[in-house]
Backbone:
DNA sequence: ATCTGGCTCTACAATGGAAA
DNA sequence: TTTCCATTGTAGAGCCAGAT
C-alpha cells in the first residue's frame, strides 16, 4: 500500500488539482482583495510596529471571509430593529447586534450561508491568502491544494522541503451589515417592536448597505458604520469583494479602526468575559444575562434555550473535535509518510488563521513537543535501547496560525515565523 | 449552568463503474 | 474514449443528552 512514491503521488495529484481549481473558480476580485489586504497590513505594521503583524493579518483574513459571506446576502434574513432609530441588520450571531453591544439580547437567527458552501471557501481562501503572504515575504515555496487525505501541500522544490498540512480555518467574527429604513407597522397598523424580529424585506438590490464596525466612545462600544456598497442584482456575485476593496481604497481610517475593534474582541475572547462586542464573536454561547423574552430552543420541551452562537462555530482551530481530528491527521500523515520520505524532508502540521485561543492548554500543550518512532521489537523503553541511527520524528513540525505558532522545524519557522510569534 | 461530543442534516467534491 | 450518475467521504452546524 504505502510505497516510496506516496509523497510524490500526492504531490502530483495536488498540482493538477490546483490548475483545475484555478480554472473553475473564477472570481477575478479574490486575488486583488487578498493582495490589497496584505499590503495594507504591512503598511500599518511599518507605521506602528507595536501592532503585531500576525494579528493584523488574521483580522484581515476575517474580512476576506466576510467578503465571501456577504456575497450570499439576498432579500431574506434581514432583522428589523426599531429603536433608537429604525434599522435593518444582516448579522452572523443570533441576536440584534446593536443591542448586544449593551448586553441586551433580542433573539434573531443569524443569516449565515449554508455550511456546505462555507467549508470549501474558508479552506480555499486560507490557501490563497498564504500564497500571497509568502510571495510578499519573498519566499519561493508553492502552496497547493492537497488531495485526500491532505488539505494543503507546501513545497520548496530546491531544498526538497515539503509540508502536508491539515487546514482548520474559521473566522473570529463577521461584521453585520446595516441598512437604514422607515418605521414599520404590522397589518393592523401597530408599531413593530424589537421582539417581533425576523422580517423578510422586498429588495436589497441597489440600496446603500453599511458595514457595522463598533467604535469605542468613552470606554463603551457604540454602533458605528462605514458606507459599504450595494448589490446590483442576483448576478452581482462578487459585490462583497468589490465593496471591501473600495472601502479600503476610499477610507484610510477604516482598517485601523476595524483592527482595534477586532483585536479587542480577540483579547477578550473568553467565556468569562461576556461583555458587549463579545456577543459578535463566534461560539460566544448563551446570552448573559438572559432576558425574560429569550426563546427556548426549537422543539425544546426541556430546559434548552437558544444560544447567541453555538460552540460548534468555534474560532480558528479552537473547536475540540477539530483539534482531535487535526492530531489524528498529523499522526496518520507522519507515520505513513515520514519513514518513506526518500528525497523529501517531509513535514506535517496544522494550519489555521487563529491559534487555539481557548483549548491550546488543555488539548495541545502536553503534545506540542512530542516525538515518536516505530519500534517493531516492542522492547524499547528509552532512546538508548534503539540503534543510535534509529530515526525519531516530530508529532507536529508546526502548529501554525497567523496569530500564534509553535514550531519544531527550522524551515517552517523561516516560512511562517512572523514578527509576533 | 456550561461544556462536550454523538447523531443528524445539508452541500459539495471525488471516485469509479456503466452507458453512450 | 468520453459522459453520466450513483456512491462515498468530508465539513459545518443544529439539536440534544450526559458529565462536570
Residues:
Amino acid at each position: 500500500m504505502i510505497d516510496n512514491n506516496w509523497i510524490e503521488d500526492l504531490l502530483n495529484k495536488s498540482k493538477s488539482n490546483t490548475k483545475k481549481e484555478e480554472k473553475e473558480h473564477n472570481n477575478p476580485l479574490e486575488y486583488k482583495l487578498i493582495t490589497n489586504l496584505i499590503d495594507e497590513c504591512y503598511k500599518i505594521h511599518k507605521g506602528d510596529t507595536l501592532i503585531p503583524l500576525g494579528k493584523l493579518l488574521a483580522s484581515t483574513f476575517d474580512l476576506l471571509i466576510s467578503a465571501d459571506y456577504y456575497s450570499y446576502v439576498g432579500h431574506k434574513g434581514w432583522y428589523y430593529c426599531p429603536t433608537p432609530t429604525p434599522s435593518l441588520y444582516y448579522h452572523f450571531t443570533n441576536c440584534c447586534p446593536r443591542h448586544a453591544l449593551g448586553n441586551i439580547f433580542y433573539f434573531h437567527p443569524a443569516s449565515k450561508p449554508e455550511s456546505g458552501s462555507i467549508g470549501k471557501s474558508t479552506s480555499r481562501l486560507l490557501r490563497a491568502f498564504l500564497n500571497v503572504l509568502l510571495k510578499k515575504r519573498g519566499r519561493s515555496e508553492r502552496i497547493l491544494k492537497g488531495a485526500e487525505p491532505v488539505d494543503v501541500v507546501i513545497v520548496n522544490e530546491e531544498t526538497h522541503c515539503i509540508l502536508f498540512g491539515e487546514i482548520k480555518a474559521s473566522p473570529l467574527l463577521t461584521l453585520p451589515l446595516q441598512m437604514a429604513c422607515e418605521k414599520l407597522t404590522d397589518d393592523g397598523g401597530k408599531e413593530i417592536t424589537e421582539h417581533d424580529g425576523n422580517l423578510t424585506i422586498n429588495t436589497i438590490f441597489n440600496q446603500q448597505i453599511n458595514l457595522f464596525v463598533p467604535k469605542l466612545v468613552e470606554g463603551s462600544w457604540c454602533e458605528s458604520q462605514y458606507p459599504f456598497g450595494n448589490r446590483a442584482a442576483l448576478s452581482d456575485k462578487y459585490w462583497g469583494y468589490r465593496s471591501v476593496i473600495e472601502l479600503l481604497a476610499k477610507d484610510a481610517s477604516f482598517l485601523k479602526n476595524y483592527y482595534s475593534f477586532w483585536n479587542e474582541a480577540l483579547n477578550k475572547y473568553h467565556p468569562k468575559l461576556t461583555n458587549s462586542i463579545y456577543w459578535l464573536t463566534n461560539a460566544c454561547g448563551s446570552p448573559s444575562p438572559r432576558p425574560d423574552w429569550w426563546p427556548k430552543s426549537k422543539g425544546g420541551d426541556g430546559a434548552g434555550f437558544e444560544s447567541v452562537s453555538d460552540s460548534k462555530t468555534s474560532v480558528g482551530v479552537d473547536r475540540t473535535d477539530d483539534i482531535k481530528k487535526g492530531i489524528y491527521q498529523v499522526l496518520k500523515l507522519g507515520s505513513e509518510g515520514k519513514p518513506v520520505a526518500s528525497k523529501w524532508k517531509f513535514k506535517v502540521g496544522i494550519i489555521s488563521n487563529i491559534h487555539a485561543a481557548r483549548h491550546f492548554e488543555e488539548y495541545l500543550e502536553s503534545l506540542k513537543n512530542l516525538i515518536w518512532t516505530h519500534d517493531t521489537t516492542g522492547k524499547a523503553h528509552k532512546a538508548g535501547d534503539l540503534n543510535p541511527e534509529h530515526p525519531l520524528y516530530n508529532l507536529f513540525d508546526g502548529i501554525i496560525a497567523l496569530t500564534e505558532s509553535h514550531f519544531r522545524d527550522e524551515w517552517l519557522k523561516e516560512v511562517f515565523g512572523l514578527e509576533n510569534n
